[in-house]
Amino acid sequence: IRVLTLLMLGLLGLASLSPRRGIFILTLFLPFMYFIRRFVLTFEEFSRRDPILLFPAVVTVAMFVGVVLFNGSRIYYCIRHSPLLKACSLLLGIFVIQMLNPLQGSLLIGLAGGMFFIPPVLWVFLGLGIDKETINRLLRMVMVIGTLTAIYGIYQHYFGLSDVEMYEIRAKGFYKAMGAESNVRVMSTFSSLVDFSRYLTISGFLAFAWF
pLDDT tens-digit profile of 160-194? Predict the structure, then answer.
């Protein structure tokens, strides 16, 4: 099941190589990534090195390379005229250099750390080719996803976590931290309560602003 899931994600990644389409795909995929991972856990054992988690980082880097290759002149123009983009470029360079630090261990350790810091900075450059109408669509999409995940969070609060969700938090060692079975802290389709609450904060603000 995990191999089939990775194959489907690979096809989705190929569809994401178009930067504009890829932004929509990742915006839709990321809130449900751990939900898909839990579906896989229904059939296979938990693995801390689940390759499914690499999908967003790999696709983001591929999208950034595509933007540089096909819209490089626009990016260079924006960097030259924007102090903010110059600061982001400097920060990105520092992150890349830190990945090569031999004092932290092998290059794999550097890549694992860079996966959490480099893709978010790359999204700044991916947004340079997005017009106002596309941004409005993305914000509405975030609001709708926030509503759906909030409804599922309410379901978890009143009916408890599913068997596979309980299995996952036990495998991660978060059973007591998540409140055990007496007072479960809901996480909806996200990896943790923190990610869920942050997404609700953003989508709730967008709903209020749209209203």
Answer: 888 888 888 887 776 666 655 666 778 899 988 88
pTM (two decimals): 0.81
* Nearest Cα residue to 116 out of 57, 197, 31, 193: 57
Question: By three-state DSSP, how is residue 185 classified?
Answer: coil
Amino acid at 112: A
19-70 pLDDT, tens digit per residue, is 788 888 889 999 999 898 888 888 888 777 778 888 888 888 888 888 888 7
Spacing of C-alpha 43 from chain mean position: 24
d(CA 201, CA 48): 28
Q: How far is CA 155 from CA 29, 39, 48, 182, 191, in A?
A: 21, 18, 27, 16, 17
CB of 207 closer than 8 Å to CB of 143: yes
Q: What are phi and psi of 178, to 5 degrees?
A: -85, 5
- Distance separating alpha carbons of residues 164 and 42, to the nearest angstrom: 6
